[in-house]
Fold this sequence. Notes:
The protein has a three-stranded antiparallel beta sheet. It is of the alpha+beta class. The chain has four helices and three strands; from the N terminus they run E-E-H-H-E-H-H. The chain has one domain (10-102).
Amino acid sequence: MAFVLKKSTSVSWPVAVKKASNGGKFEEHKFTALFKEIGRKRFDELIEAGDEALTDEILVGWEKVQDEAGVDFPFNEANKKELLDDFTVMKAVIEAYGKLITGGTEKN
Length: 108
């Protein structure tokens, strides 16, 4: 199969968030992010601008995110800002995107 260069694509990719719990342990929570693939030059610009600029551009949707009541937490700009205000989520999103662009795989 030939490689087809696409100008704009998005990819569903797993994100694993490790949240601290009592007793010095962590609980892993997963959701699926919809990531916008960007070019190398744009990536470098966003890295220079900081984590918030990067995640604001690359995270364009999600699945399997719920609020504390167990209700689906829909994707929109306000909810994205709320979700990414959590340090552990921000870190997990950046790590997952890093795996996506470097060919890394998600461990089961």
